[in-house]
Amino acid sequence: MKVFLILFLLLTKGVTVGEEVVLPKPSLKGNVSLEEAIKNRRSIRNFSSKSLSLEQISQILWSAQGITNNKGYRSVPSAGATYPLEVFALIVNEGIEQGLYKYQPEAHSLKLVLSGDLRQSLAKSALNQNFIIQVPLNLIITADFKKTTSHYGERGIMYVHMEVGHLGQNVYLQSVALGLGTVAVGAFRTEEVKKVLKLPSPLEPLYILPVGYPK
Fold first, then answer.
1. For 70-81, b where at least 16 C-beta lie within 10 A, e where not — what string?
2. What DSSP character marks residue 67?
């Protein structure tokens, strides 16, 4: 019954805050080699507004923080498997209610936390980097540093920064493999981003990753 409800909500664009959107299963085999993806990886700052498929969105999110085995390990290495990163997806795309979603790795699903097109406000908080407005998908990568520093002390801060770099490279390479592009955005006003997205404490934004078709 839950599956049919989710499909109905998707088709009617009637997802409400707190509703869960189960994503298609990620593909574990692609048509582009790792070597090709590395060779063709570039930072893209000019995008088409063309919508992504739900399968593409699913694949990008899986590459960022997806579960990769039955022990709960993820697609990105994490110091002591502390997994301090939380991924939010700002989606303005055909076939799904526009808004800010939280990615839930264990269920490979999205949970709507804020409704509406927040791209202009997000771009403004990111020093008017307006390619954020062009894309149908913006990933906002946040961290709860205490998850790692409680194990490793102050050195855990460095480990979290290393981990978000691993995630960024995964998203870059997965984007290339899907015929898409991205760029790692670190220039933003932290407190403004937190306000725009209403991020709960103790989450701190580290990256914005716009994802779309290169123009």
1. eeeebbbebbee
2. B
CATH code: domain 2-212 is 3.40.109.10
Q: What pLDDT digit, counting tens, does each position of 34-53 carry? A: 999 999 999 999 999 999 99
Phi–psi pair at 101, nearest 5 degrees: -115, 150
Q: How far is CA 82 from CA 17, 55, 135, in A?
A: 28, 28, 31
Alpha carbons 60 and 51: distance in angstroms, whole number:
14
Model confidence pLDDT, tens digit, residues 107-148: 999 999 999 999 999 999 999 999 999 999 999 999 999 999
pTM, entire model: 0.92
- Structural domain boundaries in the chain: 2-212
CA distance 173 to 164: 14
Place of tokens 């869960």: 20
* Secondary structure class of 206 (helix, strand, coil): strand
β-pairing verdict for 85-91 and 204-212: unpaired
Number of alpha carbons in the 13 Å side-chain half-sphere of residue 103: 27
Using CA atoms, how far apart are residues 44 and 128, in angstroms rounded to an integer?
Answer: 16
Average pLDDT estimate for 152-175: 98
State the pairing for strand pair 20-22/85-91. Answer: unpaired
Place of tokens 């700052």: 45
Answer for the pair 136, 50: CB distance below 8 angstroms, yes or no: yes
